[in-house]
Each structure stands twice: as structure tokens, then as C-alpha cells.
Design brief:
heterodimer; A: 389 residues; alpha/beta; 9-stranded mixed β-sheet; globular; disordered C terminus; B: 93 residues; alpha+beta; Arc Repressor Mutant, subunit A; 3-stranded antiparallel β-sheet; two-stranded antiparallel ribbon; 3 helices; 5 strands
Chain lengths: 389, 93
């Protein structure tokens, strides 16, 4: 998620959870190789019921939550999406449906409009039918194109989201043309973040520096031509950076995610972090979770930091980067994010980039199904102990 | 840079965006896909008058009356021009 919200600088008293993400279900008809959902999603407990979701909305809103993302999995898999949206609208949320489009019909998009849905973020995997369908391991390109037309017909602001990686980053020009053609006002070109399924597929998904440079040039030309009419957010692939992203504006600062089974997380990937206990909304109020729980308080402020972050003047800007990335790469979530070139572990990132450049060379246009792991229910349990090689 | 907004222009909150008061932030905010801007008092006073019906001249007059000051014209026009450039406002004719 790439929300643009100003972070409160003081950690002493956390501000409200301004941004609420409800992952309504992990069910999803797609099997994307870069999905950030936990690789053991099949082990997740029972999904919350409608009443529980509505209670979460009410409690979060009373604390000050205002931006609402409805995500998954595929949120359209929930038959009670419309009443959830209606309740959220009544409470005053600004509501974004984050969807693959699969399961959207004219009747539902109309009902969602009536319920008060504000905008729709539609994901495509590529500008071509071939690669879109390959990457999601489905035949969905035409269907998504039809959903884009419905989004326009019902006058929703449309955000087109495409996750970028080695196999599709050379198509940025075509992706932007597609966005223009289907009438998107916002485009999010989100370079893959390496968590969940993407972490397992990292060596096959990392682009090369040259690919990245070409994509950025294409983007500059597009911006110069189109101007403000279509806003393009380009989420940089942080493995190529020398300073880490201000992940989540610091854990527990503005973001609150509720997973399908009701577990509350300060980031949708945070469940992997060892030593943290994340409460469930079935057992605790949103207020108690946000302000009082160990899982939310642990990484607030800078008391947890080690060197080089602790004495670094930039710590108030990037908060030491991403805790999940620090954990995945170094084994200790309190270390500096190794994307930072001041981190003693920075070589782990540069080596990964180097290794990926030599893995599956020339595969940019010929994806090889055998070496990619598709997100599906069957492979969810066996893969949980795998690491990228 | 965008051209200055004319005196007869009727600015409105851009389609799909929403301006609302947030008690928890003690501020008006402007909500848009993927983000939110927390507004200061004068920005909120101007934007909340941009209803697509009133002209720039009407808005300035209303602000000057409400706050008991004169000579706001340039300041308001400059902010509205900026807000249009940022796609927070659109001009209705």
C-alpha cells in the first residue's frame, strides 16, 4: 500500500488509525505469483461475519479512521460486501474497493454505487491478455476490460493498479496506454514488494537495472504528454535504492489492517514478525488494540532501534525502513532495513539484485511456468517453509 | 503553471473527491483516491464555499463578509488556481 498521508512525528502519543484496511477474505479466483498475502493463508481461521465487520467499522471510525480500503483476497467473494459498504458510508468513511474485478456484475456495481462506494481500484497483471492471464494463472483479461467499462459507466473514479516485475516492466508504455484507453484517472505502477508469494518468487521477479531505467524513461515521456489528467504513482522497487522506504509511516502510526479472521495488524505483512502478539477483534476493542496492545506498541517510537538507525539523523524520516524486510533478510526485525546502504547487511540486497540478474536470463518475455510458484490453496501449506534460493 | 482562474469561474470540489470535517483531527480534510490532505482553516474556508454554483467573485465577497476583512481577492484566486492545478477543484461553467 502506498498511501500518501503525513505521519505524526511524535511517537509518545500515537495519532488515530486514519487508514483502515479490511481484508474481508483470503478467497480469490486469481493465483498471482506476486501476491503479498501470507503464504500460509490456507491456515487462517474462520472469516469474520457481517456484524463483526460492522462493529470494527464503527469502533475504528470513532477513533478517527477515515480512509477505508476493502481488500482481500477478492472482496467481491463476500456476498455481504454491499451492506458493509453501506454501513461504512453512513459512518463517513471514504471507501475504496480494491479488486481484481472478478465477480463484478452490472447489478453489483450499481448496488455498490447506491451503497456509497467512493472509488474502485482495479488490478491488471499486464497490458497483454497473454501475460495478464499467465501471471494470474487464469483467463481474466477480457473480463477485467469489461469491468473497467462498467466502472466508467457508473462514474466511479478509477485507479488502475499493476504490480510490476521483470516479466511485465518492459510493457510500462503499453500499460499506460491501456490506462488511458479504459479511462483510468489514477495509475499505480507498484513495483513488487518482496513479501508473501513474491518473496518465494523473488529471484524470478526482480527486474534488472536496465529494465527499471527504461520504465522510468517511458513514464517521464507519458507524464510530459498527459500532464495532470492521469496521475501516475510509481512505487519504486526499493531493492535498487540506497535509503529505505518510510514503511507504513512507521508501524502503528496511521495504518490498521484487519485480516479475514479478525487479527489486527499494523501492516498487512506484519504477522510474520516474531515476538509480537496481535490481538483479534473478536476479543478486544479496536481502541484497546490500537493504543494498548504489545503488537502495536512494540515498534512505535525509536526505543527499539539498533545502530546504525538509533543515532541516525534520518530516523525520523524513514523510521528505519520496513520491519518485515529487515526480518526476512537479516533474521532480526529490529535491524535497519538492509535497503539502506548504511546497514551492515546492505550487501544482502545488492547480492539479491545481482543474483536475480543472472537467474533465468532472457526470461523477460518467455515466462517459465516451472520456476514460478502460483498462489493457490493447494500449495499454500507446503510452501510455508520455503525460502528463495 | 495553470492560467489564473477568472472572476466568473464556478469552482467545485473535483468529481470523486470529498471535503469533510474530521473531529479526531480537529480539521477539515480533503479525501481522494489513495490519499488525504489535512486542511488549515483558510483552505477549508475557501474550499467549503466551492460548490459549483458560486463564482470566484461570490466566494471572495462571502469570505470578506464572514471574516470582516477586505482585499482577499488575490489570495483566494491564488489558492483556487493552485487547487485546480492539484485537481482538488474543477471549474464548472
Amino acid at each position: 500500500m502506498n498511501a500518501r498521508i503525513e505521519a505524526p512525528s511524535s511517537a509518545a502519543r500515537p495519532g488515530p488509525p486514519l487508514w483502515l484496511l479490511l481484508e474481508l477474505t483470503y478467497r480469490c479466483p486469481l493465483h498471482c505469483v506476486f501476491c503479498y498475502n501470507p503464504t500460509d493463508f490456507a491456515n487462517t481461521g474462520q472469516e469474520l461475519g457481517t456484524d463483526d465487520w460492522i462493529r470494527v467499522l464503527r469502533e475504528a471510525r470513532s477513533l478517527g479512521a477515515v480512509q477505508l480500503g476493502l481488500s482481500g483476497g477478492e472482496p467481491l467473494a463476500r456476498e455481504d460486501l454491499e451492506p458493509i459498504v453501506a454501513q461504512a458510508h453512513t459512518l463517513g468513511f471514504y471507501i475504496n474497493l480494491i479488486t481484481s474485478g472478478i465477480g463484478m456484475t452490472e447489478a453489483r456495481i450499481k448496488a455498490l454505487k447506491y451503497a456509497g462506494l467512493d472509488h474502485i481500484q482495479l488490478s491488471f497483471q499486464d497490458s497483454t491478455r497473454e501475460l495478464n492471464d499467465f501471471l494470474s494463472s487464469t483467463r481474466t483479461f477480457e473480463l477485467k476490460s469489461q469491468v473497467a467499462a462498467l466502472i466508467r459507466k457508473y462514474d466511479y473514479p478509477m485507479v488502475l493498479n499493476v504490480v510490476l516485475h521483470r516479466l511485465n516492466i518492459d510493457h510500462v508504455g503499453e500499460i499506460l496506454e491501456m490506462a488511458e484507453r479504459i479511462g483510468a484517472q489514477y495509475v499505480e505502477l507498484a513495483n513488487t514488494q518482496y513479501y508473501g508469494w513474491a518473496w518465494l518468487n523473488r529471484d524470478r521477479l526482480l527486474p534488472s537495472r536496465e529494465q527499471l531505467r527504461r520504465a522510468e524513461q517511458t513514464l517521464q515521456r507519458f507524464r510530459a504528454r498527459v500532464g495532470e489528467k492521469i496521475k501516475v504513482f510509481f512505487v519504486v522497487p526499493d531493492y535498487f535504492e540506497t535509503r529505505p522506504k518510510a514503511c507504513m509511516n512507521g508501524l502503528g502510526s496511521v495504518f490498521l489492517t484487519i485480516t479475514p479472521d479478525g487479527t489486527a495488524l499494523p501492516c498487512h505483512a506484519a504477522r510474520m514478525l516474531p515476538g509480537l502478539t496481535f490481538p483479534n477483534v473478536r476479543e478486544a476493542s479496536v481502541q484497546a488494540i490500537w493504543y494498548d496492545s504489545q503488537g502495536f506498541n512494540h515498534f512505535r517510537g525509536d526505543g527499539w532501534m539498533k545502530e546504525p538507525c538509533r543515532s541516525c539523523p534520518e530516523k525520523t524520516r524513514d523510521f528505519g525502513g520496513c520491519r518485515c524486510q529487515a526480518y526476512l533478510l537479516t533474521g532480526d526485525a529490529a535491524n535497519a532495513d538492509p535497503v539502506c546502504d548504511l546497514s551492515p547487511h546492505h550487501h544482502l540486497v545488492t547480492e539479491a539484485v545481482e543474483r536475480a540478474a543472472h537467474s533465468g536470463a532472457g526470461s523477460a518475455r518467455k515466462p517459465n511456468e516451472k520456476v514460478l510458484l502460483f498462489r493457490d490453496h493447494r500449495s499454500s501449506i507446503p510452501v510455508t517453509t520455503l525460502q528463495p534460493d | 503553471m495553470s492560467a489564473a482562474v477568472s472572476a466568473t469561474a464556478k469552482p467545485a470540489i473535483a468529481h470523486g473527491l470529498r471535503l469533510q470535517w474530521e473531529p479526531a483531527q480537529e480539521a477539515h480534510v480533503l479525501l481522494y483516491p489513495e490519499g488525504m490532505v489535512k486542511l488549515n482553516g483558510s483552505a477549508a474556508a475557501i474550499l467549503s464555499r466551492c460548490d459549483g454554483i458560486r463564482t470566484l467573485t461570490d466566494i471572495v465577497a462571502d469570505l470578506e463578509r464572514s471574516y470582516g476583512v477586505a482585499g482577499l481577492s488575490d489570495e483566494v484566486a491564488a489558492f483556487i488556481t493552485l487547487a485546480v492545478a492539484k485537481c482538488w477543484l474543477e471549474i464548472r461553467s
